[in-house]
Write a structure and sequence with these properties.
Elements: H1 12-17, E1 28-35, E2 40-42, E3 50-52, H2 54-66, E4 71-77, H3 96-107, E5 112-117, E6 130-132, E7 135-137, H4 138-155, E8 159-162, H5 169-179, E9 186-193, H6 200-206, H7 226-237, E10 242-246, H8 252-261, E11 266-270, H9 272-283, H10 289-303, E12 307-310, H11 313-321
Parallel strand pairs: 1-3, 1-4, 1-12, 4-5, 5-8, 8-9, 9-10, 10-11, 11-12
Antiparallel strand pairs: 2-3, 6-7
The structure holds ligand PBG.
The site of ligand PBG has 11 residues, from α6.
């Protein structure tokens, strides 16, 4: 036999030399949930993940930085009493979320703060946009999203993350940010966000499940991949700084396709259901927690993602130190 591929696998050193993909704590954005509570609240469907008070969140950010994780995506959980049909609370300058962002920015001037731009945490309908006659209206929502983005930039966001899937919102947000002088605030656009069953635990975390219907008139159909390229071309033309594919695991083909069609950095969101499935499987003794976690994260990088949003960020950073 002339050719023996196994020769390049004979030792740990040669395996590392020829490794095509690497994983580092610097690849991660850590999603963190905020709530006006005392201390922190466990989330039943997401073992190890909490809704943090501001104090607790500052502590969590500190712990992350210690582990080499310097990028965060913050999501607010609101009580029902603060929600209404148009998400009024989202635009209240002194709201809990904006106060938290400012405090985090003040305490940690160097960290990358990504924010969430969508109405679902603030919506009594549990939808990402304004609902009129049972429909999620696009253009009226986009105007609100653009104002949200400006308030978040003012509070210290490094980049805003429109997670809503309305048409034209990247251009509207870019225009509003620039007009307000925030030319350096980036846009990480949820470009190919699918109407997925894997968001279940996240909606528990925020108590944000839709009160009627589903999100299929704005989030993408899992059957489609060409459509992801169409969304990517639009977001790129509208001024996005990074394109996101979400969820990650059932959509590795989409990550690879978008990678081949853009020079922009690509982020992938390893979503709540993907996280909790591994937690459940490991707890049931079905597979090894750390090895499964690292294999899944590596697969997302291998598919073509530069950045991974993952609830595993701190555990993975810890596990990577040991390797
Ligand atoms: C909503 C939003 C969702 C997630 C992030 N932003 C859920 C949804 O669209 O219903 C899901 C994240 C996760 O599951 O981890 N704007």
């Amino acid at each position: 036999m002339l050719i023996r591929p196994r020769r390049n696998r004979t030792s740990a050193v040669i395996r590392d030399l020829v490794a095509e993909t690497t994983l580092s704590a610097k690849d991660f954005i850590y999603p963190v949930f905020l709530k006006e509570v005392a201390g922190k609240e466990a989330i039943a469907t997401m073992p190890g993940i909490y809704r943090h008070s501001l104090e607790s969140c500052l502590h969590e950010v500190d712990r992350a930085v210690e582990l080499g994780v310097h990028a965060f995506d913050f999501f607010p959980a609101l009580p029902d009493s603060a929600k209404d049909a148009t998400g009024t609370e989202a635009l209240r300058r002194e709201n809990f979320y904006l106060r938290c962002l400012s405090a985090i920015r003040q305490r940690f001037p160097e960290v990358y703060i990504m924010t969430d731009v969508a109405l679902d945490p603030y919506s009594s309908d549990g939808h990402d946009g304004v609902v009129r006659n049972g429909k999620i209206v696009n253009d009226e929502t986009v105007e609100i999203l653009a104002q949200m983005a400006v308030l978040q930039a003012e509070a210290g966001a490094s980049a805003v993350g429109p997670s809503d899937m309305m048409d034209g919102r990247v251009a509207a947000i870019r225009k509003a940010l620039d007009k307000a002088g925030y030319t350096d605030t980036g846009i990480v656009s949820y470009t190919a966000k699918y109407a997925s069953a894997f968001y279940g635990p996240f909606r528990d975390a925020l108590d944000s499940a839709p009160k009627f219907g589903d999100k299929k008139t704005y989030q993408m159909n899992p059957a489609n991949s060409r459509e992801a390229l169409r969304e990517a071309a639009l977001d790129e033309a509208e001024g996005a700084d990074m394109l996101m594919v979400k969820p990650a695991l059932s959509y590795l083909d989409i990550i690879a396709k978008v990678r081949a069609h853009t020079t922009l950095p690509i982020a992938a969101y390893n979503v709540s259901g993907e996280y909790s499935m591994i937690k459940a499987a490991a707890a049931a003794g079905i597979c090894d927690h750390d090895r499964t976690m690292l294999e899944v994260l590596l697969s997302i990088k291998r598919a073509g993602a530069d950045v991974i949003l993952t609830y595993f960020a701190l555990e993975a950073a810890q596990a990577l130190k040991a390797i």
